[in-house]
């Protein structure tokens, strides 16, 4: 047996020559790095290399020294043969990775702590956002209800005034219900109903669904809104939940129409594009010629309750992002201030690896 000084330092003593306990590895106590169970000496990497005549490399093991200290090692054993191929022995190389494994464990604990803190922060932000968003319609409900009571008590209430107040109560109640509905959609993890879909047909269906809103937007801004659909001819089929992806498209198109309802916008054009993105996915883009958004804002767009619109709830984009991510894709935004805004998202091709037959 031959060994160097570093081996003595790792073992905690010089190995005893011809001692059965030291024959293979310099330690009589070995443990599996996977579950901590004892590792029989005849199953250690050195014994296997000698017995089978093949190399055993990069085996993580726990090595117990005579003083009881345990080290995590990366073990390697390879047979030594003479020129005629006769097995003469084996070389045993150990690398101490204890510090590395401790650092990795600390990183895992740190990541878990940060993730927990992030979840708590997110929950706090959502709770604050819910309180803020619901406070407005609920306050309005109370005010209009009190106005109705005062009008009735005065004995001078006109039917028109009461109807107007009650209509406002109904409107604010509907707004509160819509906030709750959108929050449930954001938090719900409903299973996807995936289908293999023709992407051309899927996008055309969403465009047809939004046609009335495009016409309405043109009437509001008193200028024609040009709608362009530019789809690559040879798009692959995609495997998606068609209802949910149409919901994403409709939401992004609606955002674009609202963004172009701005007196600073001279030319109003809404473009839908789709093109293959590598072998496994397709990128769909919704682009408008609205005013865009300020630098740095795109990082906040997908946070719940963040909005750049006075009457917005700040839930449409987070819901869309959660739908796209559930499909294995991503949603992001790009903009050129004063020129255009683009929202892009990816969906998987029907033949993408990793997609099974259903969800």
Give your account of this protein's structure.
The protein is an alpha+beta fold and 359 residues long. It has three domains: 5-96, Beta-Lactamase; 122-187, Helix Hairpins (Orthogonal Bundle); 195-348, 2-Layer Sandwich (Heat Shock Protein 90), CATH 3.30.565. It is built from seven helices and eleven strands. The strands form three sheets. It has a five-stranded mixed sheet with strand order 6-8-9-11-10. A four-stranded antiparallel sheet has the order 1-2-3-4, with helices on both faces. Strands 5-7 form a two-stranded antiparallel ribbon. A hairpin with a 5-residue loop joins β2 and β3 (70-81). The relative contact order is 0.08.
The N- and C-terminal alpha carbons lie at a distance of 59 Å
Number of strands: 11
Estimated structural class? alpha+beta
Spans of at least 5 consecutive residues whose pLDDT stays below 50 are: none
What is the chain-wise order of helices and strands?
HEHEEEHHEHEEHEEHEE
- Characterize the overall form: elongated
Q: Any idea how many domains?
A: 3
CATH top level label of the largest domain: Alpha Beta
Q: What is the alpha-carbon Rg in Å?
A: 33 Å
Count of helical regions: 7
**Architecture of the largest domain in CATH?**
2-Layer Sandwich
CATH superfamily of the largest domain: Histidine kinase-like ATPase, C-terminal domain
- Reported by name, the CATH topology of the largest domain is Heat Shock Protein 90
> Describe the biggest sheet?
5 strands, mixed
Mean pLDDT: 78
Strand order of the largest sheet: 6-8-9-11-10
Instruction: Indicate the proportion of strand residues.
Output: 15-25%
Helix content: 40-55%
């Amino acid at each position: 047996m031959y060994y160097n000084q570093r081996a003595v330092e790792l073992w905690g003593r010089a190995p005893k020559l011809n001692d059965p306990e030291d024959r293979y590895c310099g330690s009589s106590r070995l443990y599996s790095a996977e579950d901590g169970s004892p590792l029989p000496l005849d199953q250690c990497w050195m014994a296997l290399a000698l017995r089978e005549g093949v190399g055993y490399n990069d085996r993580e093991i726990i090595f117990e020294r005579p003083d009881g200290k345990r080290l995590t090692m990366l073990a390697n054993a390879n047979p030594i043969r003479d020129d005629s191929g006769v097995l003469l022995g084996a070389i045993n190389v150990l690398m101490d990775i204890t510090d590395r494994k401790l650092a990795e464990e600390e990183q895992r604990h740190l990541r878990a702590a940060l993730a927990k803190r992030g979840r708590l922060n997110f929950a706090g932000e959502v709770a604050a956002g819910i309180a803020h968003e619901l406070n407005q319609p609920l306050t309005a409900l109370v005010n209009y209800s009190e106005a109705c009571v005062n009008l009735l008590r005065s004995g001078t209430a006109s039917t028109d005034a009461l109807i107007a107040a009650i209509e406002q109560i109904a409107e604010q109640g509907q707004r509160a219900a819509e906030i709750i509905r959108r929050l449930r959609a954001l938090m719900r993890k409903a299973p996807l109903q995936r289908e293999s879909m023709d992407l051309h047909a899927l996008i055309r269906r969403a465009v047809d669904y939004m046609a009335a809103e495009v016409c309405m937007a043109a009437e509001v801004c008193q200028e024609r809104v040009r709608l362009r659909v530019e789809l690559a001819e040879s798009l692959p089929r995609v495997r998606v939940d068609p209802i949910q992806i149409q919901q994403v498209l409709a939401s992004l198109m609606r955002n674009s129409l609202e963004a172009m309802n701005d007196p600073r916008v001279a030319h109003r054009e809404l473009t839908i594009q789709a093109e293959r993105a590598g072998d496994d996915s397709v990128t769909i883009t919704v682009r408008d010629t609205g005013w865009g958004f300020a630098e740095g804002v795109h990082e906040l767009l997908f946070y719940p309750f963040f909005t750049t619109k006075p009457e917005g709830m700040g839930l449409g984009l987070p819901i869309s992002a959660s739908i796209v991510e559930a499909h294995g894709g991503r949603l992001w935004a790009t903009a050129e201030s004063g020129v255009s805004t683009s929202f892009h998202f990816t969906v998987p091709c029907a033949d993408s690896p990793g997609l099974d037959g259903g969800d």
